[in-house]
């Protein structure tokens, strides 16, 4: 031990003798840790890792020369205290949780704890304590439960006493029941993630105080009811994901107040009432996903899509939308994904204008009532590959150079014109009709338009030519 460490040791020993304070644990490198703090840490970890784990032997100096993976400390006065605790295999050398674990009360004696994370710890059914959380209220800023299928029961109301929380992540666990109303107390939150659980009931209508919230994710639950109007009070919100729930009714007008929102994902709910124009007023949006909601026969032409120039992803599939594909979509130069499939869209496809979108990498227009001819270039089809679908549009066809080429599976080729002299013959080849097993001949429909006016002889010669052509095709 160096002379500096010796002097420090003597000084601390003298101070504790004079003041009568309990003697702290002094580590080999001279960094003292309060003994009750160290004992609470060892006991808490032992409850998760197993009784065979002995921290005093393996990690005599958890905040110094022998740190524990997942444990971080900070100095308060002259003593070390635990500030961050992560349990579970976050890293290869992290402490793994045992098969039969328990949450010991010593965990809640770590009075300077700022961050607490459980990652893939709870695999067997267990409920978390309800009363002890208030002991961490003075310092805890981050609380995360990630991938713990064994965590069941309701989220305790006492979570609402952690009023200094800036991040609450409850992701992919087994929690169920209604969301605690005490969540309304956590107005300092910047991130609230409750995704991938079994929460039921409605969303609390108390977001008027959440001025600093940046991320709200309640996706993949069983939440029902309508979207509360107070959601428009979260003026700093960047990401709103409520997808894969049972939300219903109309979108509140107040959603248009979220001027900083970049992602809005409401897919696979029961939201109705048409495409709300206030959504289009959020010009900061880069990702707008509303697919799988019965919006009804809303006409897309009434929306000024050209005002949403930041859109990168637009998914409006399976919504029952009608009308034509608006030309405003063709001005979205940043668009990479456009999903319009499985609606009731009609009219022609603005192929040439859609092809000019520089970033477009996926286009789905299948399952509609579109008509006319697709005029995309061969280069466009090769660029898209399987990320372009236009099948299941009975009156839509594709232009191909030869019969051997078919860019879109399940889509027929358009009428091809052949010019012979001053005669024009239009032929339609059906690519969808399957060959009859009992016959080796293919059905061919030929229509002709005689554009000559030089008398009967030319017509007769043309008729004979057509008969010979038919005979050759049948053979």
From TrEMBL:
Residues 1-20 form the signal peptide. GO terms for cellular component: plasma membrane. Keywords: Cell membrane, Leucine-rich repeat, Membrane, Repeat, Signal, Transmembrane, Transmembrane helix. It is found in: Cell membrane. Gene3D superfamilies: Ribonuclease Inhibitor (3.80.10.10). The keyword Signal applies. It holds the Pfam family LRR_8. The keyword Transmembrane applies. The chain crosses the membrane at residues 456-474. GO terms for biological process: response to fungus. This is Predicted protein. It comes from Arabidopsis lyrata subsp. lyrata. The lineage of its organism: Eukaryota, Viridiplantae, Streptophyta, Embryophyta, Tracheophyta.
């Amino acid at each position: 031990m160096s002379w500096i460490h010796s002097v420090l040791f003597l000084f601390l020993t003298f101070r504790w003798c004079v003041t009568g304070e309990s003697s702290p644990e002094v580590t080999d490198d001279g960094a003292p840790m309060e003994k009750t703090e160290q004992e609470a840490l060892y006991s808490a970890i032992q409850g998760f890792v197993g009784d065979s784990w002995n921290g005093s032997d393996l990690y005599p100096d958890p905040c110094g020369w022998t740190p524990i993976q997942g444990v971080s400390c900070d100095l308060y006065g002259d003593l070390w205290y635990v500030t961050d605790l992560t349990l579970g295999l976050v890293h290869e050398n992290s402490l793994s949780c045992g098969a039969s674990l328990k949450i010991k009360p010593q965990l809640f004696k770590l009075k300077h704890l700022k961050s607490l994370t459980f990652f893939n710890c709870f695999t067997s059914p267990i409920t978390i304590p309800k009363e002890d959380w208030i002991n961490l209220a003075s310092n805890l800023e981050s609380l995360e439960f990630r991938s713990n299928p064994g965590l069941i029961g309701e989220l305790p109301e006492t979570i609402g006493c952690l009023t200094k929380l800036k991040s609450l992540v409850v992701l992919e666990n087994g929690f169920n029941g209604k969301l605690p109303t005490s969540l309304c107390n956590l107005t300092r939150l910047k991130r609230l993630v409750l995704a991938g659980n079994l929460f039921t009931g409605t969303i609390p209508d108390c977001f008027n105080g959440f001025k600093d919230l940046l991320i709200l994710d309640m996706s993949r639950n069983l939440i029902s009811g309508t979207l509360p109007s107070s959601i428009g009070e979260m003026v700093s919100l960047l990401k709103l994901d409520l997808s894969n729930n049972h939300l219903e009714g109309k979108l509140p007008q107040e959603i248009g107040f979220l001027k900083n929102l970049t992602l809005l994902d409401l897919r696979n709910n029961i939201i109705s009432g048409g495409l709300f124009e206030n959504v289009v007023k959020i010009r900061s949006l880069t990702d707008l996903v509303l697919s799988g909601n019965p919006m009804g026969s809303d006409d897309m032409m009434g929306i000024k899509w050209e005002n949403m120039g930041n859109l990168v992803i637009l998914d409006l599939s399976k919504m029952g939308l009608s009308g034509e594909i608006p030309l405003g979509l063709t001005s979205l130069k940043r668009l990479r994904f456009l999903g319009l499939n499985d609606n009731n869209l009609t009219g022609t496809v603005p192929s040439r204008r859609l092809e000019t979108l520089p970033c477009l990498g996926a286009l789905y227009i299948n399952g509609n009532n579109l008509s006319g001819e697709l005029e995309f270039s061969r280069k466009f089809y090769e660029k898209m590959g399987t990320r372009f679908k236009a099948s299941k549009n009975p009156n839509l066809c594709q232009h191909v150079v030869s019969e051997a080429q078919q860019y879109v599976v399940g889509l027929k080729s358009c009428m091809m014109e052949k010019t012979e002299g001053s005669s024009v013959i239009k032929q339609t080849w059906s690519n969808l009709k399957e060959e009859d097993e009992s016959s080796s001949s293919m059905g061919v429909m030929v229509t002709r338009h005689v554009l000559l006016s030089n008398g009967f002889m030319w017509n007769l010669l043309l008729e004979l030519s057509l008969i010979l052509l038919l005979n050759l095709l049948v053979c």
